Inverse folding.
């Protein structure tokens, strides 16, 4: 088999065979097929697209390209959760202790991520001493004893995707539905859970800007997962403004803890309940959404979910006292008020811009090597639909560097758009598949 013929077949609109797809993934992972041929194939796929069968084969080939986690030593139905990402997305921090406290084992691999804020692992490192560098044995043992463990993504998980994603990133071939779906799902399948609940974001702060594209991506990933024998659900949720009020790292941890105390922002709480219900149903501990919602309410009001977070933080070397007393979590030295330049109703917030403000403050990584300042961030005081007076505080900026705070403040103000008329707040949950 020759790579040249595979490129030619796709260029001419032919459906690739399973053998052709596996040949190029294996050859590329081993370094036997050069970048220039694979980038040519990616561009042909971009224009000619892939069928559902091709996409499934591509996903499975990438999942098979490296280590696959064996979670069979963990009792119960393992349910993983994945978000396509967005600004202020701290969902895993609140969701995982909730479902673990209700008997669904959480065995999660998370990433650090490039972006506006750190990934789940960075955020968890806001707890003094917390580490996700734990052995496979400790990981499995912690899940079996306390119901929850989170470890860093190993370098060898779906290595074909790692190479391919880096190549797509520099060849303008990221935004193809089949390539995105196979990239995300290959990592999820290799991470070994029995069920996967997807949170597919839609809007100005999301990868997919339109609901149509977000639903299509969700359907494609659900289809792949089901064909690979996993129980799947997908929630399509709004990312046209930041989720909750906190954007940063430690500041998001504090908001997640407040939510576990029943005092979280309404939109974030709604998302936690919606995803949590899917996880409890797929994990076999709740028969329907109403029962699942009651269970979540009870585990929050009784303090069991908060205790589970403390137990989890302690088991991975962190300080559990910070769970019960969030004043012990470090926020930046300077807290600066952002005042509204005009009166009106908040009509729109350029979601990505708020993320960039967090990045400017030092809360995210621009390159893999960047160090994150976990203590900086933003607390929104006004969101879409809120009425604002001129000069009223619309946000607080937590900064260690006042020059960076000035730059962030200027961008922040430009990201807010006002209307003289009342504004309808968009629904958070757009649909469930
Ligand atoms: N996230 C991924 O992991 N892969 C993509 O292709 C896009 C987003």
């Amino acid at each position: 088999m020759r790579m040249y013929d595979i490129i030619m077949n796709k260029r001419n609109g032919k459906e690739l065979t399973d053998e052709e797809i596996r040949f190029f993934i294996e050859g590329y992972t081993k370094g036997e097929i050069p970048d220039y041929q694979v980038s040519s194939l990616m561009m042909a796929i971009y224009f000619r697209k892939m069928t559902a069968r091709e996409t499934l084969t591509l996903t499975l080939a990438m999942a098979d390209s490296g280590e696959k986690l064996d979670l069979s030593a963990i009792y119960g139905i393992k349910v993983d959760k994945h978000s396509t990402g967005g600004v202020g997305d701290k969902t895993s921090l609140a969701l995982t202790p909730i479902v673990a406290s209700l008997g669904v084992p959480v065995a999660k691999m998370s990433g650090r991520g490039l972006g506006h804020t750190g990934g789940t692992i960075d955020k968890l490192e806001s707890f003094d001493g917390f580490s996700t560098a734990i052995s496979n044995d400790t990981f499995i043992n912690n899940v079996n004893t306390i119901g929850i463990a989170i470890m860093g993504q190993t370098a060898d998980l779906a290595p074909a995707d790692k190479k391919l994603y880096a190549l797509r990133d520099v060849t303008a071939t990221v935004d193809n539905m089949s390539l995105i779906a196979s990239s995300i799902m290959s990592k999820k399948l290799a991470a070994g859970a029995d069920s996967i609940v997807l949170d597919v974001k839609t809007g100005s702060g999301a990868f997919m800007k339109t609901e149509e594209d977000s639903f299509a991506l969700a359907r494609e990933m659900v289809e792949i997962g089901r064909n690979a024998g996993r129980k799947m659900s997908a929630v399509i949720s709004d990312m046209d403004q930041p989720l909750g009020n906190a954007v940063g790292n430690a500041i998001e941890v504090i908001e997640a803890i407040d939510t576990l105390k029943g005092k979280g922002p309404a939109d974030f709480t709604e998302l936690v309940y919606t995803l949590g219900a899917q996880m409890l149903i797929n994990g076999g501990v709740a028969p329907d959404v109403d029962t699942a919602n009651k269970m979540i309410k009870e585990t929050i009001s009784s303090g069991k979910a908060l205790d589970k977070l403390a137990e989890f933080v302690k088991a991975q070397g962190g300080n559990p006292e910070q769970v019960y007393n969030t004043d012990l979590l470090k926020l930046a030295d300077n807290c600066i008020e952002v005042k509204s330049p005009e009166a009106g109703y908040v009509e729109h917030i350029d979601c990505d811009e708020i993320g960039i403000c967090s990045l400017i403050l030092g809360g995210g990584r621009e390159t893999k090597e960047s160090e994150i300042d976990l203590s900086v961030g933003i607390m929104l005081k006004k969101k879409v639909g809120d009425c604002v007076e001129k000069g009223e505080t619309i946000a607080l900026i937590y900064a260690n560097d006042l020059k960076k705070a000035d730059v962030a403040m200027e961008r922040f103000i430009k990201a807010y758009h006002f209307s003289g008329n009342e504004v309808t707040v968009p629904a958070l949950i757009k649909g469930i598949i």
Observations:
- The CA atoms of residues 286 and 292 lie 5 Å apart.
- The pocket of uracil is lined by residues 165, 174, 179-180, 183-184, 207 (CB under 6 Å).
- The chain is about 45% helix and 15% strand.
